[in-house]
Amino acid sequence: MSQLIRPVRMFFLLFQVAAPVPVRNVLPGAALLVVWLATNALTGFSPERAFTMATLAALCTHFTLRLPYDIRRLAGVLGSDFAVGITLVATIAPLAVLIDLQNILLCQRVLTVIPLGIAAIYLTGIVDRSGLVTQLAWPDPRLAPMRPALTRVALLRSLSFAFLNEAMILTLSPDLWLIYAALLPWLVHYATSALTTTVFLDHQRRV
Description:
Layout: H1 2-17, H2 23-41, H3 47-78, H4 80-101, H5 104-127, H6 132-137, H7 147-171, H8 174-206
């Protein structure tokens, strides 16, 4: 029993030593709440339209901050032109769908679809023996021995947050769900830090 309790205890202790959440990670949540409060304070906005605008503000902020990083990372493997094209399509397509439909449930499901899409990529990395996906995710050569384990925990993390979002949709009102969505970057950051640090520590123990 102690052999099971000790790793679990160490995992939760890792949350206390993790680095602070980067400012860029919390800006989408801040944009979400600001636009939500502003549209609710103004007349002429239906709940669906206000919810959609808040979601779009968060997504646009997130994509704007990540776009240069994603293009630079993909360009090293896929080439600059293809990297720009696939990144822009992946960015614009969900925004266009949300603008057209203006549906609260659809907006909420964005936080299910994104981690499921990321999980599919990591699953491809587990199945693919070429190592292209894992190298793209963790390009540092020093991480090469840990890439399989990092890929597995990243897959687990993505699936967990997809299921968590579905649970939140079922149990929370739209207003409370927005607060959850705004605070989600903190949870993702600390969970990711704890999981990756666990992999690093386990690798050092085995070496």
